[in-house]
Amino acid sequence: MRKLASFASLAIFVLPIALGACQASSSASTQPQPQQPPPYYGPGPYGQQPPPYGQPPYGQPPYNPNVPPSAPAQPPPVAPAQRPLLPPLVGVAAWQQELRSILSELLAALNQSNQALVRGIPLVFDPTSEVNAFAGCDEQGAPFLAATSGILEAVDAIAQTKATDELFGTRTYDAYCDAVLPQLVKSDKARAGLPAGIIPANLGGDLRRWSRAREIFDEVLAFTFGHELAHHYLGHTGCAKGQGGSGPDPTKLGRLATVVPLFNQVAEASADSAGAYNSLDAGRARRPQYPWSENGGVTLLDYFARIERAAGQGGPLSLLNPLGVLKTHPNPLARIPLLQAVARTWHQQHPG
Ligand SMILES: [Zn+2]
Question: What predicted TM-score, i.e. pTM, was given to this entire model?
Answer without folding.
Answer: 0.76
